[in-house]
Amino acid sequence: MILTMSDNNFKKQYNNDSQKLELFKEFRKTRDLDLREQLIKEKLQIVIPIARKFHYTKESQEDLVQVGYIGLIKAVDNFKPEKGVKFITYATHCIMGEIRHYIRDKSESMKRPRWLIRLNREVAQFVETFLQENERLPTVLEISTALNIEQEGIIEILKSKYMVSLNDFTEDNPDTLMLNKIRSKRMESFKLPIEDNICLDQAIEKLKIMEKEIVYLFFYKDLTQTQIALDLGLSQKKVSRMLKKSILKLRDIIIPKKSNVD
Fold it and tell me: Of 22, 75, 83, 185, which has fewest CB within 10 angstroms of its CB?
């Protein structure tokens, strides 16, 4: 049988796919980190075209690509060759899912920041537990005491559940939020006051996607730089540089440099 050019291309592609499948099977068994890095690097080129499909969202392409890389890493880690699905199909699904999740989360946080959603959740959980134990709703004072937040702050948190926008914080409008009223009632050992936590959360939200991920894993999950590097498919030096850069950014956001203007 004489193979045509298209036949040769098909055979070459088939052999390549078979080899890649064997590599994934080997990684599935061994979880070898060098092999993991190889598989990630070989598929990096698929991220950018997928990220471009979301141009209509007006989100930064750089941010979307970074989120896409995280989706690719998850795809390599979780791909099961025995299922019979092509990796490119599975990876595309993971990358697009990660980007959609990011866009959805960012859209929600534009209406209500994550820290405010978290405070709403804490208040709701306390109210539910209190109601079950006492067969009545708690007063604002009782919520305030339990959560160590000033009563006027509790009121602002409760108001925020029904707000659509946080653009207007003036005292003149009773229907707008005054986030500066959300403060701790008393100092607690080894804990930042809630207003400082809010300030820190707002600063972290201004970091780039990968920077936020590294800060979260290092400071909130207590992972080492080596563990973070393995988790994100980066080198330890890269993680170290990005962590240092992120800390400096946070410092400049929280404590802006003084203007040189007299």
Answer: 83
Q: What element of type H or E holds 101?
A: helix 87-111
The CATH code that applies to domain 205-256 is 1.10.10.10
Q: What are phi and psi of 130, to 5 degrees?
A: -60, -40
238: left (phi over 0), alpha (psi -120 to 50) or beta: alpha
Looking at domain 18-110, which CATH architecture does it have? Up-down Bundle (1.20)
Q: What is the pLDDT of residues 47-104, one digit of tens each?
A: 999 999 998 887 888 889 999 999 999 999 999 888 888 899 999 999 999 998 888 7
- Give the chain's largest Cα–Cα span: 87
- Long-range contacts for 153-157 (Cβ within 8 Å, ≥24 apart)? 153/181, 153/182, 153/183, 153/194, 154/123, 155/181, 156/181, 156/182, 157/116, 157/119, 157/120, 157/123, 157/182
